[in-house]
Amino acid sequence: LATLPLALVTIAQVNALLSGYLDISVGSTMTIGVIIASFIITDKASPQTMALGVLAILGSGILVGLFNATLVRWVKLPSIIATLATLSILDGISLSLRPIAAGLINSNFLSALTASVGFVPIAFIILVVAAAIWDLLLYATPAGLALRAVGHDAQASRRNGAPTTLIRVGALVMSGLMAAIASFFLAAQIGVGDPR
């Protein structure tokens, strides 16, 4: 279970790298997800409130990806500078919202994330299956070929009709979304909103 956040963030980073970008804001995206969970998915939260919290965390990941894409594609900053700026902004927001570790996250929610079959966490099984499917999509479909082609040579891909902007924006959004998903498992490890 301890490796699930790292595995998910690795998949997030692969999406960005395959498109020719480097996203170093994934750690802060995970942190902001944990902070959001500590405010919304509390011990007294109803199932509807927990569902709202899940949507808020996933939405924050998508917004981070769109913000990174905006900085890289339209402001024309190098991806490492843009995502470093995003990392700094998210760290500042996290520390402003939770200067110290506080806000217990719902234990039932965390138990659902850490459920297992025998000694193997269910989330790990889902991750392995999802990674295998993602690998198949990357190497056996036109969309996967387009993603890899754009990362290798965007200009040649554009000449061959690949929607390079859409592919690159999508890769950064997917990176943010995967980091947000990883934040659930980071929350399961620490159980409290901790900005550090």
What Rg, in angstroms, do the CA atoms define? 17 Å
- Helix amount: over 70%
What sequence of helices (H) and strands (E) makes up the elements? HHHHEHEEHHHHE
Total beta-strand segments: 4
- Identify the overall geometry: globular
Pairing-aware structural class of the strands and helices?
Answer: mainly alpha
Low-pLDDT runs: none
Mean pLDDT reading = 92
Please report which band the strand proportion falls in: under 5%, 5-15%, 15-25%, 25-35%, 35-45% or over 45%: under 5%
Strand order of the largest sheet: 1-4
The count of helical stretches stands at 9
N- and C-termini, Cα separation? 20 Å
Main beta-sheet annotation: 2 strands, antiparallel
Brief overview:
This protein is mainly alpha-helical.
Structural summary, described in words:
The protein has 196 residues and is mostly helical. It contains nine helices and four strands. A hairpin with a 2-residue loop joins strand 2 and strand 3. It is globular.
